[in-house]
Amino acid sequence: MLQSLRVSRAGPEELPVVGQLLRLLLQHAPLRTHMLTNAVLVQQIIKNITTLRSGGVQEQWLADLHYCFNAHITGHPQGPGALSAVY
Questions:
Q1: What is the CA radius of gyration of the chain?
Q2: Is residue 68 a contact partner of residue 26, using CB atoms and an 8 Å limit?
Q3: 1 vs 20, which has greater pLDDT?
Q4: Distance CA 85, CA 76 (A)
Q5: What is the mean pLDDT of residues 13-17?
């Protein structure tokens, strides 16, 4: 599923849904190993979402997604700015 995800084809109204789904997948313990195995791919997807949503104000769902990525994949539960440090 992750490999076939094309964030660039998602419309602005679909990006929050994709972000929330990724966050739920990151939080789901049985799937966490799969997400860790594909950490680079997950990181690229989140980077693409962030790029497409780059605007003045960061929305809460995107901040939550960054937090979950940092907490579950990198092991560093820091704020949303921490994801950009990973790139």
A1: 12
A2: yes
A3: 20
A4: 11
A5: 89
Contacts by 25-29, CB closer than 8 A, 24 or more apart: 26/65, 26/68, 26/69, 26/72, 26/73, 27/68, 27/72
pLDDT of residue 85: 47
Nearest Cα residue to 46 out of 61, 66, 60:
66
CA distance 21 to 87: 22
DSSP 54: -
**What one-character DSSP code corresponds to residue 6?**
-
H-state helical runs in 1-87 = 15-27, 29-37, 39-52, 60-69, 81-86
- Which amino acid would we find at residue 40? V
Give per-residue pLDDT as tens, 20-76. Answer: 999 999 998 888 888 888 899 999 999 999 888 876 667 899 999 999 998 888 776
The neighbour count for residue 59, using CB atoms within 10 Å, is 13
Residue 73 backbone phi and psi in degrees, to 5: -100, -50
